[in-house]
Amino acid sequence: MGIFLKTEIQPECLLGVWEITEEYDEIRSMVYLDRAEKARLASFRSLSRKLEWLSVRALIKSMKGQQAKITYNEENKPFLGGGGNISISHSRNLTAILVSPDKRVGIDLEYMSGKISKLGHKFMNERERLTENSAVQKFHLYLHWCAKEALYKICDKQDVNFREGITILPFEPEDNGFIRGHVVNSAGEELFDLEYLHHENYALVWSCKK
Asked: For the chain, which domains are there?
């Protein structure tokens, strides 16, 4: 299927989602790889990991209209070669990316299995609230997890306590909407606006901030 969502959520901040339905040879033919990238691709043992990795490059090319190289720093944080920020997330057969030339970006995508119901206490703190509507409690939990992951990424995973240092302000979940998040670390405190959507059995949350 390839790209099924491409939108500019803010000026010069692009969100894209790719559904991986292609065979390996098809998606491999969509992107040019240099020698180092070919070696990186060959290092992955599983076919699913190869497809994920290729789908990111194919998605960027489709969104930007040209090939874009991805580089990584010492913390394995990705950046766009030549300048620009990127956040990447995979789950099952979906790949999501958020790109901006100058804004900080964070995105997380999760397929909603039943495993999260017993884990909420491990990542939600006492200031956060879960809806009393049992029909959407699982979705609400995943939105908290995805929002925290997105903020963890946008803050470069530096000196942030995932449970206590990131707080998602109370909200009632809908199919799509907005969330506010509060992050505390050694650099101080900061508020973030996040957006989310529900696609089939996936939860997707993202944030883009100067």
From this structure: 2-101 (3.90.470.20), 108-209 (3.90.470)
